[in-house]
TrEMBL record:
Residues 1-117 form the Gfo/Idh/MocA-like oxidoreductase N-terminal domain. It comes from the Bacteria. Residues 127-242 form the GFO/IDH/MocA-like oxidoreductase domain. This is Inositol 2-dehydrogenase.
């Protein structure tokens, strides 16, 4: 088996290294808009570098991993499925809802295989939370709280094409809410603040956001996120039911200090970023893709699953801009 990987930046390099460590993944063909960068990574991993993205398709591969900049995802996914290639794509498949729907219609028409990169589905703590919620161990679930806090803002150039805090960052939280609870959001109300670095205002984005989601069984979800958490990288979820409550993402590296006299000590080595925090989960999702390609496992996150989370993010952005509650039924769907 030969897997092509397009995009050898930070996340693409991580994915390539994870695949190179898997004997069942076969060989790797790497490509990037910067051929020299792809060549350097290929040398380190013992892979092959293609002189251009075009050669990935003309030289022939059995599957494709799309890890380039967001604006390139849609074209590559469509080309892959039209050519009969199973494809793994980092979220999102497109920067906005209209183009996302267009890509997914192409995938459906081609009867293609698309796995989206929502790595938290493979995190040990998130999986345990799902098991407990789904088993009824917490009783009737009434409250969910999620938070994502980045230690520092991304580059200004990234903000301009990221899609905004809801679509780029909080979409992972929205996916987790659905995946853990098994419920759908019916309404959102969101607000955001751009009081931080000027780059956010210039990009029309916010550096801090909050959203209240109402699920179809009445469960209330509060989700917050910020790009300006100097204490470290912090991703947590809390699930509260009538019988018990649990938290994922709370460990000895969580960057938070207690003010209680007998509270736990502050983390001596707080999480520094998403690759460090979710490294094992990223590896596991690529392993699931390899099994999917080999016909040895199911698709853990197809296009419809990704679309559901993206529609919540889109509704939040609309709510923030229009300063009103937004029903999910207002947004187009497949």
């Amino acid at each position: 088996m030969r897997i092509g990987l397009i995009g050898t930046g930070r996340i693409g390099s991580f994915h390539a290294a994870a695949l190179a460590r898997r004997p069942d993944a076969g060989s790797l063909l790497l490509a990037d808009a910067d051929p020299a960068r792809a060549a350097r990574l290929a040398d380190r991993l013992g892979a092959t570098a293609a002189p251009s993205v075009e050669q990935v398709f003309t030289w022939g591969v059995d599957a494709l991993v799309v890890a380039c900049a967001t604006e390139g995802h849609a074209e590559l996914v469509v080309r892959a499925v039209r050519g009969g290639l199973p494809v793994f794509c980092e979220k999102p498949v497109a920067p906005d809802l209209e183009r996302t729907l267009a890509v997914l219609r192409e995938v459906a028409a081609a009867r293609g295989v698309l796995q989206l990169g929502f790595m938290r589905r493979f995190d040990a703590g998130c999986r345990t939370a799902r098991e407990l919620v789904r088993s009824g161990a917490l009783g009737r679930l009434h409250t969910v709280r999620t938070m994502t806090a980045d230690p520092a803002p991304p580059p200004a150039a990234y903000l301009a094409t990221s899609g905004g805090l809801y679509r780029d960052c909080m979409v992972h939280d929205f996916d987790m809410v659905r995946w853990v609870t098994g419920r759908e959001a019916v309404e959102v109300y969101a607000a955001g603040s751009d009081a931080g670095p000027a780059a956010f205002r210039e990009a029309g984005d916010v550096d801090t956001a909050a959203a209240l989601l109402t699920l179809d069984d009445g469960t209330l979800v509060s989700s917050t996120a910020t790009r300006c958490n100097g204490a470290g990288y912090d991703v947590r979820m809390e699930f509260a039911g009538e019988l018990d409550q649990v938290s994922s993402g709370l460990d000895d590296r969580t960057p938070i200090a207690s003010t209680e006299p007998h509270g736990p000590p502050p983390a001596s080595k707080p999480w520094g970023g998403f690759l460090e925090r979710f490294g094992p989960a990223y590896e596991a999702e690529l392993g699931a893709f390899v099994k999917l390609v080999r016909g040895e496992g199911p698709n853990p996150c197809d296009g419809r699953e990704g679309l559901a989370a993206f529609r919540i993010a889109e509704a939040c952005e609309r709510s923030r801009r229009e300063r009103r509650p937004v029903r999910l039924e207002e947004l187009p769907d497949l």
